[in-house]
Amino acid sequence: MNPILCPLDKTIWQSRAEKRPVVAFDFGIKYNILRLLSLAGFEVIVVPSSTNAEIVQAMEPDGIFLSNGPGDPEPVTDAIDTIRALLDYRPMFGICLGHQLIGLALGGKTFKLKFGHRGINQPVKHLKSGSVEITSQNHGFAVDIETLDEKDVEITHINLNDNTLEGFRHRELPIFSVQYHPEASPGPHDARYLFDEFKKLMERR
Question: Which of 117, 139, 170, 181 is labelled catalytic?
Answer without folding.
Answer: 181
